[in-house]
Design goal:
It contains three helices and two strands. It is mainly α and 100 residues long. Strand 1, helix 2 and strand 2 form a beta-alpha-beta unit.
Length: 100
Protein backbone atom coordinates (compact mmCIF):
# COMPACT_ATOMS: atom_id res chain seq x y z
CA UNK A 1 0.00 0.00 0.00
CA UNK A 2 1.29 3.42 -0.89
CA UNK A 3 -0.50 5.29 1.91
CA UNK A 4 -1.32 8.97 2.01
CA UNK A 5 2.00 10.41 0.91
CA UNK A 6 2.46 12.72 -2.06
CA UNK A 7 3.71 10.57 -4.93
CA UNK A 8 4.24 13.26 -7.55
CA UNK A 9 5.13 16.87 -6.69
CA UNK A 10 2.36 19.39 -7.43
CA UNK A 11 2.60 20.98 -10.87
CA UNK A 12 0.48 22.05 -13.84
CA UNK A 13 0.24 19.23 -16.35
CA UNK A 14 -2.13 17.28 -18.57
CA UNK A 15 -4.04 14.28 -17.25
CA UNK A 16 -2.01 11.93 -19.45
CA UNK A 17 1.32 13.37 -18.23
CA UNK A 18 0.14 13.15 -14.62
CA UNK A 19 -0.88 9.50 -15.02
CA UNK A 20 2.45 8.59 -16.61
CA UNK A 21 4.29 10.32 -13.73
CA UNK A 22 2.14 8.34 -11.29
CA UNK A 23 2.95 5.08 -13.08
CA UNK A 24 6.67 5.86 -12.79
CA UNK A 25 6.29 6.38 -9.03
CA UNK A 26 4.16 3.42 -7.98
CA UNK A 27 5.26 0.82 -10.59
CA UNK A 28 1.96 -1.04 -10.15
CA UNK A 29 -1.69 -0.37 -10.77
CA UNK A 30 -2.95 -2.87 -8.18
CA UNK A 31 -3.32 -0.45 -5.27
CA UNK A 32 -6.37 1.83 -5.51
CA UNK A 33 -5.70 5.50 -6.22
CA UNK A 34 -8.06 8.31 -5.18
CA UNK A 35 -8.29 11.24 -7.60
CA UNK A 36 -9.48 14.69 -6.52
CA UNK A 37 -10.08 18.05 -8.17
CA UNK A 38 -12.09 19.16 -11.14
CA UNK A 39 -10.28 16.62 -13.33
CA UNK A 40 -10.61 13.80 -10.78
CA UNK A 41 -13.37 11.90 -12.58
CA UNK A 42 -11.69 11.93 -16.03
CA UNK A 43 -8.33 11.01 -14.46
CA UNK A 44 -9.91 8.10 -12.56
CA UNK A 45 -11.59 6.90 -15.75
CA UNK A 46 -8.29 6.99 -17.70
CA UNK A 47 -6.52 5.24 -14.81
CA UNK A 48 -9.11 2.44 -14.97
CA UNK A 49 -8.61 2.24 -18.76
CA UNK A 50 -4.90 1.66 -18.03
CA UNK A 51 -5.86 -1.28 -15.81
CA UNK A 52 -5.68 0.46 -12.44
CA UNK A 53 -8.08 0.65 -9.53
CA UNK A 54 -9.35 4.20 -9.04
CA UNK A 55 -11.88 6.26 -7.12
CA UNK A 56 -12.94 9.79 -8.01
CA UNK A 57 -13.57 11.75 -4.82
CA UNK A 58 -15.97 14.65 -4.27
CA UNK A 59 -13.04 16.91 -3.34
CA UNK A 60 -12.83 19.72 -5.90
CA UNK A 61 -10.53 22.29 -4.26
CA UNK A 62 -7.44 21.75 -2.09
CA UNK A 63 -7.68 22.20 1.65
CA UNK A 64 -5.70 25.24 2.85
CA UNK A 65 -4.06 23.21 5.65
CA UNK A 66 -2.91 20.58 3.14
CA UNK A 67 -1.48 23.27 0.85
CA UNK A 68 0.32 24.83 3.82
CA UNK A 69 1.86 21.48 4.76
CA UNK A 70 3.10 21.04 1.19
CA UNK A 71 4.65 24.51 1.32
CA UNK A 72 6.50 23.71 4.57
CA UNK A 73 8.49 21.06 2.73
CA UNK A 74 9.63 23.43 -0.01
CA UNK A 75 12.61 25.82 0.11
CA UNK A 76 11.77 29.48 0.68
CA UNK A 77 11.58 31.25 -2.70
CA UNK A 78 14.11 33.94 -3.52
CA UNK A 79 11.41 36.22 -4.95
CA UNK A 80 7.86 36.89 -3.86
CA UNK A 81 5.51 34.64 -5.84
CA UNK A 82 3.14 36.37 -8.24
CA UNK A 83 -0.24 35.36 -9.58
CA UNK A 84 -0.60 32.84 -12.37
CA UNK A 85 -3.51 33.80 -14.61
CA UNK A 86 -4.81 30.91 -16.69
CA UNK A 87 -7.24 33.04 -18.71
CA UNK A 88 -7.82 36.76 -19.40
CA UNK A 89 -9.73 38.69 -16.70
CA UNK A 90 -13.48 39.21 -17.01
CA UNK A 91 -13.26 42.78 -15.67
CA UNK A 92 -12.21 45.57 -18.02
CA UNK A 93 -10.89 49.05 -17.23
CA UNK A 94 -13.01 51.89 -18.61
CA UNK A 95 -11.80 53.54 -21.83
CA UNK A 96 -9.74 56.73 -21.35
CA UNK A 97 -11.67 59.93 -21.92
CA UNK A 98 -14.98 58.09 -21.89
CA UNK A 99 -17.78 59.36 -19.78
CA UNK A 100 -20.10 57.45 -17.45
Amino acid sequence: MVGTSTLVPPRLTTIDEALHALIEQIHTRNDPVAFAGTAGAPAAEKWRELGGAATATDIRAPDAVWVGRLALGEPEPEAVPGPLYLRPPDARLPAKGGGP
